[in-house]
Every structure is written in structure tokens, then in C-alpha cells.
Amino acid sequence: MSSIIYYKFLHQKNQSVIHFDGTAISVFDLKKEIIQANQLGNGLDFNLTLYHSEQPDLEYEFDQDVIQRSSYVLVKRSPVSSNNKFNNASRYVTGKPRINRKMPTTAAPAVTTTTPIANTDNISEEDRIKLMFENQSNAWAQTQDELAQHKIIHYKPTTTGKEDAPPPGYICYRCGKKDHWIKNCPTNNDPNFEGKKIMRTTGIPKSYLKTISKQDIENKADSFSTNENGDVVDNDGNIILITDEGNYAVALADSKTWTSYQEKLANATKKSQQEFNDKLIKLIEQDNKKEFLDPLAEKKVLEPPIVMTPCCTESSKLQKMKNFNYNQGSLERVLIDNDFHCPNCGTEDTFI
Questions:
Q1: Where is the DWNN domain (predicted)?
Q2: CB-based burial of residue 278 (10 Å sphere; 0-12 exposed, 13-18 middle, 19+ buried)?
């Protein structure tokens, strides 16, 4: 299983990674990999130290310390002191660790024991691997003992003071107020509080917003509900919004644009219908199918309901009209205007 360790030199901005097998790596092996990856040479003129990323002043002092995978460490390369020329990084290059190093002492009562080895130069590779795993197990056991003695501190929200007041424009998105941080929200300790998401007015022009006073919101808060997206909705179905200034508002419908859209849609429908009728009338005239035209209107397709007068029921009786079929509504109006005379032959008392 391939694991990684993140590291960064103190003088660099970008971090790098070291790949290794296993769940952890010792400080000795990690320094060796860093020197090889960055081609730092034989290590005689410098020393390499590792620090915790959370506590930059805390050093990984012992080569036997174990660093868990996916950790992030800081690396510092410093020149060798003239007083101690043997304290350099050459041992990491040659792969020969120090053998008489003391394990770190802690205030914990747990005692970790290690088996000292007089010399690692003459032992086999299998014994070296076994020794490495033993050191890792001992270090992990010691870490567990230290963690077992840590005191658990539960988080308690602090009271809001002048020095902890949020800046102008800040809004607590748990309760919707702006006089405190969300970590100091009075509803944090209320197990029955149901958070309601209040949307911002980002992207909505101010001309489409209607401001609502906070007093109205507080008076009607019990009647508000939430939709499927968790937004606060009033009785009329409007979503309650909050502006950058912390005021409440609802979005108004753009009635002017909607009316203009409806008019354009109606005109487009009317134009399309007229073009269809003109095309249909042209085909009827080409095929000489006058029975499909309304005889009481000029160039209009006959529409149902279709009726005939009792006196004119066939094409041989046509006199004034080109068709004996009429639209019922149009024929009724013509009969009333002409004292119930047939529009084709003029017969009196024509009823349908």
C-alpha cells in the first residue's frame, strides 16, 4: 500500500510529497528520502531537522519517532556547527542510524522499554526491518498512553462582548440576526431549534424587492414555513430574502415584462393563424372547392357548426351565394338583420 507524507522547506512556498510503503515512516527514513529526492549531496556540510506543521517550534528530535501517513511536516536545512562537525546529515545518506540515542521522556506514568543494540552494522536486513517495526510499535504505544491522559474540553459558546462584535454586514445564518457571530448564536444550546435557511438577494435588482420590517417578520414568524429547499416562505408563497444590510425583503413579480411577453405571444399566435388561413384559402381556390369557404364572409374558411337554410339545400338552387353551407352564428345574425329572409333566394320566414 503506497502512502505519502507532505513536506515543505521553510524557504519554499510550495509543498512536496514523499511516497512510501506502510502506514507510517520513521524520522530517519523520511530524512533520507527527502535528501535523495532533492539531491542534497552527501550530507557532510549540513544538518536536517523536521518540525510539526501545527507547532513549528516543536521538533521531531529522535530518529526513531514515527510519523503517520498523510502528515504534513516542515523541513529546515542548516549548516553544520564548527563546534560539532559530526552532527551532520551524512548518516541519513549512508543509512546508518545512531544506535545509542535515548528515547524521549514524558510526564506520563507509562514506561516504554526498548531493546538496545550494540551495533547495527553486522546485523542482517531482516533484523533491521524487525527492529524498525518494533520501534514503530513502541512509539505508537507511547502515543496512546499520552492521549489517554489528555483532558477532554467541551466547547462552550462565549458571551458576546464589544470586543467580539461582528463587523457591519455580517449575518448569522442560523437565526438570521446580525448582532452576534454564528458561534455565539443563542440557539446553539437549544435542541428544539430548527434552523431556517434565509437566502441572500444576490443578483436581484433592488427595484424588484419589497422591504419588510423586522417587526412584521417577528410577528408573523410562527406562520412561516419552509419549502422543499429549506427556504423560509410566507403565507403567500413568497420566499423571505435578506439584503446585504441585514434587512428582510421579498421579490416582486416583474408584471411589466410579463405583460409584454404575453402580448408578443398573442401577436405571434395571431400572425401564425392568419398565415395558415391564407395558405388554406389559396389551396381551396386552386382546387375550386367553394364548399369549404364561408359565403357570408370574404375569403374565410367555413367553421363549424355548419347549417343550411330549409329552402336552399343543394348547389342547383344557388343564386346570390357561392355556397349553401353556413356557419350557424353568422347565419343567425344575417337572418335577424334581414327580417328572416334567406340570404340566397330571399324566401320569407326562413328559420333554422
A1: 5-79
A2: exposed
The CATH number of the domain holding residue 10 is 3.10.20.90
pLDDT tens per residue across all 352 residues of the chain: 578 999 999 888 888 999 988 889 999 999 999 998 998 888 888 888 999 988 888 889 888 889 998 899 999 988 887 666 667 888 888 887 665 444 444 444 444 444 444 455 677 888 888 888 888 888 988 888 888 887 766 555 555 455 577 887 677 777 767 778 888 888 888 877 766 666 777 778 877 788 877 777 767 766 777 776 667 777 777 777 877 777 788 887 777 788 888 899 999 999 998 898 888 888 888 888 877 888 887 778 878 888 888 888 887 788 888 787 888 888 888 888 888 888 888 888 888 7
The distance in angstroms from the start CA to the end CA of the chain is 96
Residue 225 lies in a domain: no
Among 104, 103, 105, 107, residue whose Cα is nearest residue 149 = 107
Q: Report d(CA 278, CA 95) in Å as an integer.
A: 96
Range of the domain at 21: 2-148
Distant-in-sequence, close-in-space partners of 38: CB < 8 Å, separation ≥ 6: none
SS3 of residue 240 by DSSP: coil
Domain end: 148, 182, 212, which one? 148
Q: Is the pTM of this model over 0.90?
A: no
Backbone angles phi, psi at 35, to 5 degrees: -65, -40
* Cell reading at 342: 334567406
- Cβ atoms of 323 and 295 within 8 Å: the answer is yes
Which residue, 234, 249, 253, 235, is CA-closest to 202?
A: 249
Question: From the CA atom positions of the chain, what is the Rg in Å?
Answer: 46
